[in-house]
Design a protein that fits this description.
Keywords: Membrane, Transmembrane, Transmembrane helix. The chain is mainly alpha-helical. The protein contains 17 helices and 6 strands. It folds into 4 domains: about 60 residues; about 60 residues; about 60 residues, DNA polymerase, domain 1; about 60 residues. The termini are far apart.
Length: about 350
C-alpha cells in the first residue's frame, strides 16, 4: 500500500507543529489580559464633569484644560478640543467649534453665547490689514441699541468697522425694537446676535397712530411693514402664503405663516383684520393639478385621491360628497370648503 506522505513531508510537519505551538504560547503570554472593569473606569473618568460649572466668556483658541472643565466640559470633550487645536486648527468664528469631533451640537449651543474669538484669530482681523496691534475687546456692558456707536460695537469685538457702519445706517433707517428686527440686519450673524442679546436695551416702540387696522387680504408690502411686529422677512412670507392660500378667511390664520412668532402673533392681531369676501376660490371640478397642489390645505395624498376620483366621477356638487367618498376627513373638508367652488360638471366653467 502506497504511503500518503513522503518521509520528507512527515519530517517537515514534525518540525513545524512544535514551532507553531511555541509561537501561539508566546503570543498568549505576551498579550495583556483584558480588564473590562478597568476600561469602564477609564472611560467613566473621561466623562466626569465638574459639579460647579461657571459659564463665562472664553476663547477656544487659548482656553486651557482647566478653563474648559470649569465651563462644564467633560475631560473627554476638553481633551478633544485641545487635540483639535494642537493639530493646527484655528477657531475663526464661534461656529467652528461645532466642527470639533468631540463637541456635540447640544454642547455647542450651550457654549456659543459665551465664545469670544480674539482679534488674533478672527476672520480678516483688522490689525493684519492696517499693521496696527489693536487692544483686546472690551467686556460688553448693557447698552441702548438706539444710541450705540460704531466705536463701541468695534471695541467689544462684535462687528468690524465696515459692518458697524452698515448696522448704524440700517438702525437709523428702519429702527430696531426687538431681537427679531436685530437679526433682520444683514451684517448681524446669529452668533453675534445671541452673544449681544444679554446686554441690549431696546427702546420703547413709539405707538403708530392707526385710524383703522390693516386689511390683510389687500395690504401691500408697505402697509404690512407698518404693522408693529411684522419685519421685512415676515412681510415676504405673509404675501407668499396669502397667494398660495387665496386670501385669509380669518386673522388667526396668520399663525400658519412661517416666521410669525408666538410673541409677535398676539401683537399683530390687534392691528389687522380680514375681509373674507376678498378670498380667491378654486373650482375643484376643473382646476388643474398644479393649482390644486399649490394650496396649503390640500395635502399630497388628498390630491392624489381627489384627482383619481374626479377622473372617474367627473366632479362634485358639495364638500359633503368629498367626505362621503373618503377623499377628505370632515376636518380637512371644513377647513378647505370656504376656498372651493363647484362648477357644473356638464362642461368647463369660465376661467
Amino acid at each position: 500500500m502506497a504511503k500518503l506522505f513522503s518521509d520528507r513531508e512527515i519530517r517537515a510537519v514534525a518540525i513545524f507543529l512544535p514551532l507553531a505551538g511555541l509561537l501561539i504560547t508566546a503570543l498568549v503570554l505576551v498579550r495583556p489580559s483584558a480588564n473590562p472593569e478597568a476600561a469602564r473606569r477609564a472611560e467613566a473618568a473621561m466623562e466626569i464633569r465638574r459639579d460647579s460649572v461657571e459659564l463665562r466668556h472664553f476663547d477656544p483658541n487659548t482656553a486651557t484644560l482647566d478653563d474648559l472643565l470649569e465651563l462644564g466640559l467633560s475631560k473627554h470633550e476638553a481633551v478633544s478640543l485641545l487635540k483639535y487645536r494642537a493639530a493646527g486648527k484655528v477657531f475663526r468664528i464661534p461656529e467652528d467649534m461645532a466642527l470639533c469631533y468631540g463637541i456635540s451640537d447640544s454642547l455647542y449651543r450651550r457654549l456659543a453665547p459665551w465664545v469670544r474669538i480674539g482679534r488674533k484669530y478672527a476672520i480678516a482681523p483688522e490689525e493684519y490689514r492696517t499693521g496696527r496691534i489693536l487692544p483686546e475687546p472690551l467686556t460688553p456692558q448693557p447698552f441702548r441699541i438706539d444710541t450705540v456707536s460704531v466705536r463701541y460695537l468695534r471695541a467689544i469685538g462684535a462687528l468690524s468697522k465696515r459692518q458697524a457702519e452698515a448696522f448704524i445706517r440700517w438702525r437709523d433707517l428702519s429702527g430696531i425694537y426687538d431681537m427679531e428686527e436685530l437679526r433682520d440686519c444683514y451684517v448681524v450673524s446669529d452668533s453675534v446676535a445671541a452673544a449681544l442679546e444679554p446686554y441690549i436695551i431696546f427702546p420703547e416702540r413709539k405707538p403708530r397712530p392707526i385710524e383703522e387696522p390693516v386689511e390683510l387680504n389687500t395690504a401691500d408690502s408697505a402697509a404690512l411693514r407698518s404693522v408693529s411686529g411684522i419685519g421685512p422677512k415676515t412681510v415676504g412670507a405673509i404675501l407668499a402664503y396669502r397667494e398660495r392660500l387665496g386670501g385669509f378667511l380669518r386673522a388667526e390664520q396668520l399663525a400658519e405663516v412661517p416666521g410669525v412668532t408666538e410673541r409677535n402673533y398676539e401683537k399683530i392681531l390687534k392691528q389687522i383684520y380680514c375681509d373674507s369676501c376678498k378670498i380667491r376660490k378654486i373650482d375643484i371640478n376643473f382646476a388643474s393639478p398644479k393649482v390644486l397642489g399649490r394650496h396649503p390645505y390640500i395635502a399630497p395624498q388628498v390630491l392624489r385621491k381627489l384627482l383619481k376620483a374626479r377622473q372617474l366621477k367627473g366632479g362634485w356638487s358639495t364638500a359633503e360628497e368629498l367626505i362621503e367618498e373618503h377623499i377628505m376627513t370632515r376636518k380637512e373638508a371644513a377647513r378647505l370648503a370656504p376656498y372651493l367652488q363647484f362648477g357644473s360638471v356638464s362642461g368647463p366653467a369660465d376661467e
